[in-house]
Design brief:
The structure is a homotrimer. Chain A is 31% helix and 20% strand. By secondary structure, the first copy, chain A, is of the alpha/beta class. In chain A, the strands form five sheets. The first copy, chain A, has a ten-stranded mixed β-sheet with strand order 11-10-12-13-20-19-18-15-16-21, with helices on both faces. Chain A has a nine-stranded parallel β-sheet with strand order 5-4-3-2-1-9-8-7-6. The longest helix of chain A has 29 residues. Chain A starts with 7 loop residues before the first helix and ends with a strand. In chain A, 60% of the residues are buried. Chains A and C meet through helix 3 and helix 5 of A and helix 9 and strand 14 of C.
Chain lengths: 654, 654, 654
């Protein structure tokens, strides 16, 4: 999937630095100071126009680009590049006034009205027509503008409206289904509609999974998740077609919200030239940097390790949690370098100047309400100076031995209702990722059907939906000498959410040398004793009756109704080894297990023996040591000893 | 209310055994194995066609019964009887497509769409017309089929759609009210509409209790609960009329969901030939068997002790809780025998073969995903073998000395809003039933207006709505020498939810020899000291100012604002004794009280002195000892000593 | 704002006593007993007809006042005065039947149906037309009735329907906005619509803040709160105009629900002749009397200390909480005297006779279900006798040295979403008021723009929205020698919810001698050490980076990321002193701070050195000592020692 970035690295020449720039919120008098302060802060790239639609098209079909011309001219003059937005993220109020049917609806029929943002139905032909016209005008007008470095299509697709259930969306869903299944008989088979008298006689009868008396058909729900992701992807494709026609050499991107299940990013990533990501770790959460690290590994892996753009982060606090903690002194710098170390080629913020009014006025900005004489602006300018000298990092890629497997389709299916227990895909992921992070094992996060030949160890935290091809890919990985760790409730259903019969684990039975006879979910608050290799641990959430069909039983339940039964197996298969875990261990147990699996597979950490909370990442011939602790730590590296202050960053050759 | 079962016991000849059989989910190749495995498992009765509508009527008015003919023929050939469903439980998607007005609506106007099941308005004439046509076709076609043993009307009425608030339902509600009240003046009086300016000038103005600015009129709510139960009962009557016309000698039933307040089962029970019940105790709840026991006593008592059919239970786990625990080895057998001991003449499961897809694919089945070589199928077959030899139990009835009083109308009224405290009818019931269960006292659960002459002790956990006739019935019971225990917030209102004035307890004042001057509900987490006979206990939830008008005060509040006041009274009245309790004691306190009341009344347990967790039930000349503990217990019975294993069952003559 | 009460004090001649009288709920036979018992209970004033509409106008335009004539005649004959309701609080069901568009809608579109009360859209011209006609008929008919003492307009405006979001309301909102802003450009500026592409091209595009994909525009929300309060105030003005025309000399009032943010009572108070208040402290809450005390200080201050009417309270328990505790013996009397001491000229109840049916039948009444032979009626009659001799208290006003500042606009704005932390205006108020209450400091609660010259100390618990005039008023207060205490998140935005730039505290920076550089909200459960003057305390919820610009730092954070930074400052300014607190201290910390601030300002308590839980209030030349403890306390006063029983009241000259 890796392609070149259409010249973006060459154009930027360094790790880009900047943020969303919304000068329309301010009188033009302020704009000169903006540019002056940007230069002072080392800004090289800004995103402009994201919410500009209502200003550039104040009335349907009447355009006023004058102010935006001046913004871009100012930037060009100052030598600052622009990621120019297509402005379609939020239609002006006149669209809903003229065409109320463009408003999205929830599953229960509630209309989502204007007054915030993103109030449009993604399937609406009226929205699409207006958006296309707007993008055409923008593409035409700015195709040759010297500030233009990158097209920024839409903004945070699916952030607030994850799906629309209106009648227009229903018709579009039916078209999508007709495309997928061909005939209604095939849909009936895939959806198991003989259950609960759901057989459809014609596509005309099919609906989105609107509020129903009880659990809606799970395959209907799964297909609607696919459709909703694809429908928003159509919007991106529609805009891209306009932009490519006008500017075949300008790269396009769209920025994604923090790790979420709404969009199948594997499908999205192939449609852009570079992936952009918005990262908002919660400073009140002491493990926020681990989830951030996971998300950066996910994002970087979407295009095979190609660098990505950190398109948004907060300079200090956000404003949309119940209590919004600040990034303490040094923490914004640390987390920015974390992104760079994990593959970002840009470090950008929402937003340049803190709004005086509106719904995000208490979201921090590079220039805060108190002005440039402030901690935040000083830290912003300090980081800007550091990033100016990063040319050698640009467009470099990692080489990791471990891959975790993530599949959005399986995520959607896993979190459907009416399962043996309510499971959470991200929880499952973090349970497996955290020990790897703590041990400073470099990880990629890949689609399960991707080429695994470069990896020594593949970890499958939970892959409920496992297609036959997927299982074959994992099996082949082990056969060829790779190592594999699979956790419970994997290999359960096919792409239609239909169970692989004859013993759970289905198509993974062969490689794992085991199957599962029964699931025994644990009650909330219940735990079960588990021996794992040589240590006594406790499992929560889940247990199950594992039948070893050749695998070695290396862990057993030690109490409860399954006492004595297998909890962890290890199967030598082909030239490799496949592990299977039938419960969720606590943090210590997961660490003990992962340490052993990693050791077994011959994978080495980036740096061994670091103190807790110190992340080591290799990029572009350097090793970044990131101290996520509040206090300083002493680190022995390369024969010497380095003291890294709290929230400090140390860069070594390596 | 007891009638004969229209020959069903003779036809079945034993405790029937089987489950829901939905072969339409599988290719016909599988059907032969189904019948073979059924024989292996000792299956004698299956329910067929419950969700068959969309298949037998793929388009409006076009019927295709071929596949269903073959299913019934296969069963007949194998000597397996069929409870043939009327298939009306869930209309096909085409009904909503053609007639969107058949979709039900919630109180807030939300439409409940197709995609799950039960998506029809029970008042819809269109639904009724289609359902009637379907039932006529089925009745006509299968009237003489040799497999037909029983008609299974609808399925779990009111499970997901407890009431519909749409305009069609509103019109039907008005008709129902016109029938009940005759004139609008009578409705205004009953509903106390002079309060809050609610007077209706005409029936046309009346609505269901849709979402309102605050508490809707309570009598409107109560009548709507009556209407909703009656409306669904009309559906049953409608289908029954068709079936009776075609097959006057075939019994009819409908299966009810676990103990719920939606339907007034006292009214429903008289319309069927045999009551059917679906039982889903939660294996994660260590007291699940007590609630199950209570529900079986309720269900058996609906038709005066006549045996009932356990129409559904799970062979192992269900799939609709957040965490679904398994029935551990032996537990399914134990709980099945519990139902038989408490009067079931059938033990059946949902469902025969575990679905590959759809919303219940993780609900366990007699033949699980792993196939017949499984714990579940082995336990199923084992129980089947045991049940084959149960002819002597069939159609036998208990003879209990204790009755608890349950009235759905009072349940509805009790749980309305705007009361002194939020009370829960089932909690109140369990608080009184559990000590009786623990002491192995055989209980019936009867309507308060029923003939009480056969009972020594009547327990009224909470009868907020008490009609004058009801009070007279209870009073007469004591006058004639019976014992009575009434707990707080009983005797409060009449059938229109209007307070019996002049001192609470109203029409129960005479028999109880006391009245209540004021309710003093306790705060959440608050408790109050109570002396109960000779023990010091704590009360929660409620206290009150009881004025003894002749009753002896045998318990007092010992702290708080009511310290020194009566908490428990005992009144000798006529030839009997009436107790009254003005608080909710903890488990120990309730046990102490019930032990004393039972002793006082001269009632004996089935077996005395059993270890905790061992249930003793007498049926058909045997005593069933059911060990609900995980571990084994030693029991001294009939001069000997028996060891009953965990989850074990011991059957004695008795 | 103080005006005379249009002769009401002279007419009543004493602290009025009575309650809501709804005889229409009862047969006329009961009415004679009503009047007899009222005389027995010392009743002098009753509210009549509040929910009479459906009875006096049974069909549109057909009026039947006969029964109401008889009610008023009976009262007049007995010498009991009447607050005659305009009966518009709840329209009859026929209104919604004829005009469904009069029903209100929630933000998500849910219709609020009839069946409870208040089911009308306040902007509905149809409702207004019908209401006006009704009020005209009532005014005309009873203008000269001898029982008429006071017009009772509407009832509890905004209690259940705080705002309506329907299309009619939307149109009215647009008219209101046009009036407020003149042009759409001004609205766009005020609402900061350049953010998120929200620019309106015309007023026609503007909507209420209906359910949106995410946070609706905050100024839209704020203006909608203003509009909703103003719209209901229009209803009051509409009725008042009719009444004034018919009876220029009869005072008008409307009763307000317990301290709530729905209505801007500063705007409402100037429209009535006397303010009426409904008070429902929760007997289960041991601090309920403190919130009650605060609310009475608020209500009394609305018209500059002019006496107010306690229009409703419960004689014993209410019925709308989950668990409704009783007022214990003496508690109703105590809380009634508390209201009188804090300025009430009437003590009234909801309601006279406890309903037999309907949604409030379990709400206590002066004559309970058990009848007059009851604790409640005896306590009611006892208090009635006491209140008969209170002529000298009538129409007297307090003279307090301390004012707290409350502004409904700031309350609305503070509790909008998307803030640094979720804050609660009443919590902030109670945190500052409770220490003052405990120290028996007499307080008023005033609008921040009111004349502060009479106060030594002004306390600003939280004034997020601070207009420039407001800041000037507070600044001038200190300049002239007053003391001021301001707590965090004050002075943040202007009337359009736009931030005062250049350092938080904005226009309060000068008087406080400090500004805030950054907010550091604390996580839920987190606390931070704070030195306050000489004591070590803990702060929760909030901390911040305070920069002293001349103020003395008298408290510092002692741990966390701000350790060493200012937490409390004291600024000598002009002839006065201004304190600023940057966190929320616990109860002890707030007490230590307030004690010091009070001492500093030279303010004295009503009575010093009272035991905890004893409230001292001065009114009309007396000092009321109110013992809110369950047990008795010994008090040393005026050289002697008085024992006040639990829930007792002692009145001293003073």
């Amino acid at each position: 999937m890796t392609e070149n970035l259409r010249g973006l690295p060459e154009r930027l020449g360094r790790i880009a630095y900047g943020g969303d720039y919304n000068p329309e919120q301010w009188p033009e008098e302020v704009w000169a100071e903006d540019v002056r302060l940007m230069k002072q802060a080392g800004v090289s790239l800004v995103s402009v126009g994201i919410f500009g639609w209502a200003l550039v098209e104040p009335r349907p079909g009447e355009f006023d680009f004058g102010w935006f011309d001046r913004v871009l001219d100012n930037l060009a003059e100052a030598g600052i590049s622009a990621a120019v937005a297509t402005m379609t993220a939020s239609p002006p109020p006149w669209l809903a006034k003229l065409h109320p049917e463009t408003l999205p609806r929830r599953a229960d029929g509630t209309v989502l009205w204007p007054g915030a943002r993103q109030a449009y139905c993604p399937s609406s032909p009226v929205y699409r027509e207006h958006a296309t016209r707007l993008v055409s005008r923008i593409a035409e007008r700015y195709a040759d503008h010297p500030a233009l470095a990158l097209w920024h299509i839409g903004n945070e697709y699916g952030c607030h409206v994850r799906a629309c259930y209106c009648d227009i969306s229903a018709a579009a869903f039916r078209e999508w289904l007709r495309e997928r299944y061909g005939g209604i008989a095939e849909l009936n088979d895939a959806w198991s509609t003989k259950f609960w008298s759901q057989r459809y006689d014609d596509f005309d009868e099919v609906l989105p999974p609107r509020t129903a008396p009880t659990f809606a058909n799970p395959t209907q729900q799964l297909d609607f998740a696919r459709f909703s992701s694809d429908t928003m992807l159509d919007l991106l494709r529609m805009e891209k077609a306009v932009l490519r026609a006008a500017t075949p050499d300008v790269p396009v991107t769209t920025n994604h919200v923090p790790l979420a299940k709404t969009l199948d990013l594997h499908r999205w990533a192939s449609e852009v030239d570079v992936v952009s990501y918005d990262s908002y770790p919660d400073p009140h959460d002491p493990q926020a940097h681990v989830l951030a690290a996971l998300s950066y590994d996910v994002i970087r892996s979407l295009r095979g390790g190609q660098p990505w753009l950190l398109m948004e982060q907060a300079p200090c606090a956000v404003n949309w949690r119940e209590r919004n903690g600040v990034k303490q002194p040094g923490q914004m710098r640390l987390w920015s370098w974390q992104a760079v170390a994990q593959g970002a080629d840009a470090v950008m913020f929402f937003q340049w100047r803190q709004s005086k009014g509106g719904a995000e006025k208490f979201h921090s900005a590079m220039v805060p309400h108190t002005g440039p004489d402030s901690r935040t602006f000083r830290e912003v300018a300090g980081l800007g100076a550091e990033l100016a000298e990063t040319g050698s990092l640009v467009d470099t890629r990692p080489d990791n031995d471990v891959a975790l497997v993530l599949d959005w389709e399986s995520w959607w299916a896993l979190e459907l209702n009416s399962h043996p227990a309510t499971l959470d895909q991200l929880d499952a992921f973090l349970a497996h990722y955290s020990p790897l992070f703590d041990a400073n094992i470099g990880c990629d996060v890949v689609h399960p059907d991707s080429d695994l030949s470069g990896y020594r160890l593949v970890v499958v935290p939970n892959l409920y939906l496992t297609r036959a091809e997927t299982a074959a890919n994992l099996t082949e990985h082990v056969r060829r000498g790779g190592h594999l760790l699979v956790s419970f409730f994997s290999g359960i259903v096919d792409e239609s959410d239909q169970v692989h019969l004859g013993g759970y684990l289905g198509p993974l039975r062969e490689v794992l040398g085991a199957h599962v006879a029964e699931f025994w979910p644990l009650a909330d608050g219940e735990s079960v004793g588990v021996s794992v290799l040589d240590s006594a641990e406790r499992g929560v959430l889940w247990s199950e009756d594992i039948v070893a069909d050749g695998a070695e039983v290396v862990g057993r339940f030690t109490d409860g109704g399954l006492a004595g039964g297998a909890a962890l197996t290890r199967n030598s298969f082909g030239d490799g080894v496949a592990w299977y875990l039938g419960t969720r261990l606590g943090a210590e147990g997961m660490r003990a297990l992962l340490d052993r699996v990693v050791e077994d597979s011959g994978v080495s950490p980036v740096v061994a023996g670091l103190p807790a909370g110190v992340q080591a990442v290799r990029r572009g011939g350097r090793v970044f040591l990131l101290n996520h602790n509040v206090g300083s730590v002493a680190v022995s590296v390369a024969g010497g000893r380095v003291e890294i202050p709290g929230f400090g960053v140390e860069v070594l050759a390596g």
